[in-house]
Amino acid sequence: MELKNDKERLFLEMIDSYKSVIAKVCCVYASPTAEFDDLYQETIINLWTGFDKFRGEAKISTWIYRAAINTCITWVRRNKKHSSNVALDSELPVIAEDSNKLADYKHLHAIISQLLPLEKAIVTLWLDEKSYDEIADITGLTKNNVAVKLHRIKDKMSKMKDL
What we know:
Blueprint: H1 2-29, H2 36-50, H3 60-78, H4 99-112, H5 117-127, H6 132-139, H7 143-160
Helix pairs in contact: 1-2, 1-3, 1-5, 2-3, 3-6, 5-7, 6-7
């Protein structure tokens, strides 16, 4: 019984430490048909299911990012009717009191919401200041592939910014 309590305590501490990472990933993939709360809950369930299998070969943050991104991408693939346009509402974190910064954030989020699932993952990790090596570990791509894809994503987003 004590082992079970230790596992639950460790898991809850881990979730508490990384809840903003999980929320950020879920927020990027949220839409009217994929509510933030549902994606967040499904991610937590998948993390719990895989918790015993985590061997510590990668950083825990890498494992959590990978699980969250894979959960969201799987949801998108399973639900073909998924809308890529996110309704910006109270689910988005308020990042600043400055209304200009908030407007910029909403515009950036609207652009990111139009990207393909893997592109969303890559740009979100890059915006979180993850290195190319970390992005490669999380996404399963090579470092060079991350660099090429990120360059293409930036070009794509640049063309979308005036829309």
